[in-house]
Amino acid sequence: MTFETLHNDMIKAMKARDKARKDVLSTLIADVKKAAIDAGKREDIPEELVDQTILKSKKTAREQLDTCPDERTELKAEYQFAYDVICEYAPKMMSDDEIRAFLTANYADLLATKNKGQIMKAIMPALKGKADGKAINAIVAEMSK
């Protein structure tokens, strides 16, 4: 996802007078800008940074949704809307089968050692931002038994 795409979509939401969508997108843009400043890449924001920030925002929105009390239906609906909008922009994650295939194709020799810590240390940099860490951990635990 490029920063320009996010910005253009926010402008479209403003023109359509979709305040809720515009608010979510402007928050995403602010998060991306802050991350870019922190990384020292203020002028030319790379796609990887945008994707990382969106994934972080998605995780935060999921936590908000999960911790919201059920009796606060209006607030829960607001959180759900924000989560859905963020999911539209989040990069596609690998499925469990794709993770298994990737591991067996690229790390078969390491999987044979059955050392979970060593395996995780080797594969996490390769799969960062492409697959959910919890899913990777569960699959590696299963494969290293």
TrEMBL record:
Top-level taxon in the UniProt lineage: Bacteria
The protein, known as: GatB/YqeY domain-containing protein
Gene source species: Candidatus Pullichristensenella excrementigallinarum
Cross-referenced InterPro entries: Asn/Gln_tRNA_amidoTrase-B-like, GatB_Yqey_C_2, YqeY/Aim41, YqeY/Aim41_N
Gene Ontology molecular-function annotations: carbon-nitrogen ligase activity, with glutamine as amido-N-donor
Cited PANTHER family: ALTERED INHERITANCE OF MITOCHONDRIA PROTEIN 41, MITOCHONDRIAL
Cited Gene3D superfamilies: 1.10.10.410, Uncharacterised protein YqeY/AIM41 PF09424, N-terminal domain (1.10.1510.10)
Pfam families: YqeY
